[in-house]
Amino acid sequence: MFGRVPLLLAGFTTCFLVAIGARAQGPCSSTGVNNKVACTIPQLYGPNGLAFNTLQGPPEPLFTGVSFGPASVFTSFNQGLSPLSSAIATQLSFLPLVTPAAGLTLTFDRSLGVYTVSDDSFTPVFSERGGTIGRNRFAVGFSYQNVSFGSLDGVDLRNFPAVYLRGDQTVSGTGTCSITGPSPSSANTGVCALVRDYITAQSSINLTVNQYTTFVTYGLTNHIDVSAAIPVLTVRMSMTSNATIVQQSLSSATLFLDAPVSAPFTTCTPSVSSPLPFDSGVCTKNAFSRANSASGVGDVTFRGKGTVMKGERAALAVGVDFRVPTGDASNFLGSGAYGIKPFAVWSYSGRISPHFNAGYGWNGNSILAGDVTAGTKSQLPSEVFYSAGVEAGIIRRLTATLDVIGQRVFSADRVQLSTISVPGVCDTYPGYDQAGPPGCQHPAASGNASSLTQGVGSYGITNASLGLRLRPFGKFLLTGNVLLPLDDGGLRAKVIPTVSGTYTFR
Q: Looking at residue 28, what DSSP letter applies?
C-alpha cells in the first residue's frame, strides 16, 4: 500500500506545483505602484518615490536669459541597494531545510529476529546521514522556521545611511553641468553650481520570512531513497527612508522633496530654515515608506541519495538536490532559478555519532540577480557548502545535535559602508536675476560622508546549529533547533528557530 501512495502523492504534487511555477512573472513596473514584495525598494527609490520627488524644481530661470532644461537625475538612486534583491534570492536558495529523511535508525534485533528503533541517536537536523530509510519505508514530516533578517554583509538593515549625488544637467547657453567638473572648469561652479546639491537618506528595512515545509521520503531500495521538500512561505517587507536635500549650491534651482498627491506613501513638512528667501515653504526633508507582503508555495526541492559503502556502524553516501523555481520570485517566495547540488555524506552510528557533509551548489539565472524593473536576468552565485557535527544520546528517546554549517558563496553582489566625497558649499550667492558674474566662484573644499556602496566579491556564511530530538512514542520524532550566526557575510538573522515533527511508516 505504502509503496504506491508516495508515488501518487509525488506525481500529483509535482504537476500541481509546476503549474503554479509556470505563471507569468512580470518585472516591477517603472510607473505606478504595485504590491510585489521585490518592488518595495525600486519603487521607494524609483520614479514614483524619492527620485520622482527630488526631480521637482523651480520652472523659472536662475539668471535672466539663462533657462534650465529638465530637472537632472540623481545618480543611482537604488544602485547601492540593488544587491539586496540578489542577496534575498541567494539566501532563499540557501535557507537550510530540515533533512527530509526520517531521523529514526532501525537496527536488527537478532534475538527477536525483527528490526527495532534505535535510541542511540536520531541523526542531525540539517545534515544528512550515510544510511537510508530502507526499502518501501515512507516518512512524512512538517517543519516551521521564522527568519527576521537584520543585516546584509555586516551592515545594519534597520539603520543605514546613503548619499545620492546629482547627475549631469544640460543648461542652455552654458553647456553641461557636472559634479565631476570636466572641462570647462566652471562645470560645477557659477550657474552650474546647482549640481552641488545632493541627498542624504537614513533608511530602515524590515524583512521577515515564515517558512512552513512539508517533506516526504520514500525508500526505493535498502540503499536508495528519494525525498521532496515543499515549502510555503509568508514574506513581509517594509522600508522607510528619511531623506534630506543638502543645499550646497544656495541657488533657486535647488530641488525639493514636495510629494505629489499621486504618492500617498510620502509625507512632507516644508522647511522653515531655507538659506534662500524664495525657498521658504519648500520641502527639503521628507519621509518615504513602502510595505508589501505575500504568501505562497516556495521553491520545491527534490533529493535522491544512495549509500555506496556501509560498514557495521560507518556509512558513506552520495546524493543530489534539484531545486525547481516554483515560487514567485517577484514576491521573494522563491529564488527564481533552477538549482542543483551534488553532495557526499559520511556518518557513524552510535551513542556518539559524528557526521560530515560536503557539496557544490550551482544556480541558474534569476530576475532577482538582474534588474527587477527592466526584467533582465543574471546568474545567482554558486557555492561550496559543508557541515560537520555530532549527535549524542542524552537519555533514552532524547538526543542532542550540534553542527557547524558553512557555505562559501562566489562572485556575489555585496554592500558595505564607505566614505565618499561630497561637494563643498558655495561661497556666495549674488541674488536672484542679478546682473553680473554668478556666485559660487570659489566653493569650499569637498567633504566626506558615509554611504552604502556596492561591489562584487566572495564571502562565507557560517552558522552553529543546536538542537534536541525527542521520540515521545512509536516512530514519531519531534525536533527543536536554533541556528546562530558565526560571521556576518550575506543576508543574516540573529537567530533562526525551527520546530519539526516526523513520522515513519513501517
A: P
Class of the CATH-defined domain 5-505 = mainly beta
Q: Is the bond preceding residue 275 a cis peptide, omega within 30 degrees?
A: no
pLDDT averaged over 10-residue windows placed end to end, the chain, 506 residues: 43 41 49 75 68 46 35 46 70 73 57 55 78 86 93 92 78 71 70 79 92 92 91 93 79 51 45 46 72 94 93 91 92 91 92 92 89 81 94 86 93 89 76 52 86 88 93 88 93 92 85
Neighbours of 14 (CB within 10 A): 16
Cell 526541492 identifies what position? 301
Domain boundaries, the chain: 5-505
Q: What is the DSSP string of 180-243?
A: T-PTTGGGGSGGGGGGG-EEEEEEEEEEEEEEEEEEEEEESSSSEEEEEEEEEEEEEEEEEEEE
CA 235 to the chain's CA centroid? 11
Q: Which three cell numbers stand for residue 503?
A: 513520522
Nearest alpha-carbon partner for 196 in 157, 233, 156, 169: 169
Q: Is the peptide bond before 423 cis (omega within 30 degrees of 0)?
A: no
Give CA–CA dist 172/69, Å, rounded.
7
Max Cα-Cα span within the chain: 109
DSSP per-residue string spanning 331-380: GTSS-SS-EEEEEEEEEE-SSEEEEEEEEEEEE-EEEEEEETTTTEEEEP
395, β-bridge pairs: 398
Spatial neighbors of 311 by CB under 8 A, at least 6 apart, are none
Grid cell of 159 as nine digits: 539603520
Q: Which helix (H) or strand (E) holds 14?
A: helix 5-21
Instruction: Please answer whether residues 38 and 372 qualify as being in contact, where contact means their C-beta atoms are separated by less than 8 angstroms.
Output: yes
With CA atoms as reference, report the closest residue to 98 among 397, 395, 467.
467
Residue pair 372/86 in contact (Cβ under 8 Å)? The answer is no
CB 452 within 8 A of CB 155: yes
Could you tell me if 140 and 5 are in contact, meaning their C-beta atoms sit under 8 angstroms apart? Answer: no
Q: Are 359 and 349 in contact (CB under 8 A)?
A: no
489: helix, strand or coil: coil
